[in-house]
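Hi L.,

As promised, UPF0390 protein C24B10.18:
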Amino acid sequence: MAQGEFKKKKNSSANKGGRVTKHSKNPKKGARYCAPRRAAAIKDHTINANITKTLNVRNEKLIAGIASQQVGKLTITKALGEAGAKELKEGKH
């Protein structure tokens, strides 16, 4: 027969806390991005980024052109904004 009592294990939940850092409390939102390590992948990524940029610029110019044809010159000034606000208050619009 063994002599002495068994050593009791400490409660494992007491050790789980550990250090709570600022980053672990509030992680950043959004997708994570890992840069490619191969030269071909880097080249493809830059080409895709340039294509996306040119398409966005082209679409914005197209939409601005269509809007200016329908409405006229697109300008926002303080005087026009105040005049529009007066018309809305008076109900002329």
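Residues 38-93 form one domain.

Thanks again for sending the construct details.

K.
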